[in-house]
Amino acid sequence: MQAPRFERFKKYFSRRKQSIEEVVREATAGGVVFRLNEQKQVEILLIQDPRERWTIPKGHIEEGETAQETAVREIKEEAGLSDTEVLCWLGKIHFRYRRLKTLVLMTTQIYLVRAKGDTDAIKKEDYMNSIQWFPFNEALDKIEYEDIGKLMLLGMKKLRHMRII
Q1: What confidence score (pLDDT) does residue 11 get?
Q2: Domains observed in the chain
Q3: Which of 59, 62, 61 is nearest to 79 (CA)?
Q4: Using H for helix, E for strand and C for coil, what is the string for 98-145?
Q5: pLDDT > 90? residue 99
Q6: Confidence class for position 6, pLDDT limits 50, 70, 90
Q7: Is 91 helix (H, G, I), strand (E, B) or coil?
Q8: Ramachandran assignment for 139, one of left (phi > 0), alpha (psi -120 to 50 degrees), beta (any other)
C-alpha cells in the first residue's frame, strides 16, 4: 500500500512556534513632538527604527517616573531635544508582540509635546536609521502605526482648539 500523497509534504506544515510560557506587561510613554515652521505650519518629529519603520520617540517607564516624565526623558534621549513643553495627554495605545517564548503586552501613553529652542539641533541615537521633521500630512503618511496616526490627528485638533495653529 502506497502512503497518501500528502505525507511527503507533512514536514512543511508540522513546524510549530515555541509555546508561550510567559506573559509580561510593559509600560512605555512617548510624544507626538511638533514645531511650527517659518510659515507657521506644523511639523512632526519622527524617528526611523532599525526595521525602517517611522514612529515617534518613546520608551520604557522607569521606576519612580511618571508617564509624562518618561515622555520628556525619551524625547531628550532619542532626539536631543531638551527644551520641550508637554501640552496635553493624547491617549494610550495597546499592542502586543512575541519575544521568543514570551508574549509582551505593551501600553504606551502618548503626549502632545511642543519642541522649543533650537529645534534643528536634533540628533539620532546609534540604533536609529534616521530622525527628521516632516510636514504634518507627510508625517501622517509615513507613520507606521495606525493608532499613533489617530493620536496625531487628535493632536492637530487640540492644537486648533488651543489656537496654537
Answers
A1: 58
A2: 25-161 (3.90.79.10)
A3: 59
A4: EECCEEEEEEEEEEEEEECCCCCCCCCCCCCCEEEEEEHHHHHHHECC
A5: no
A6: low
A7: strand
A8: alpha
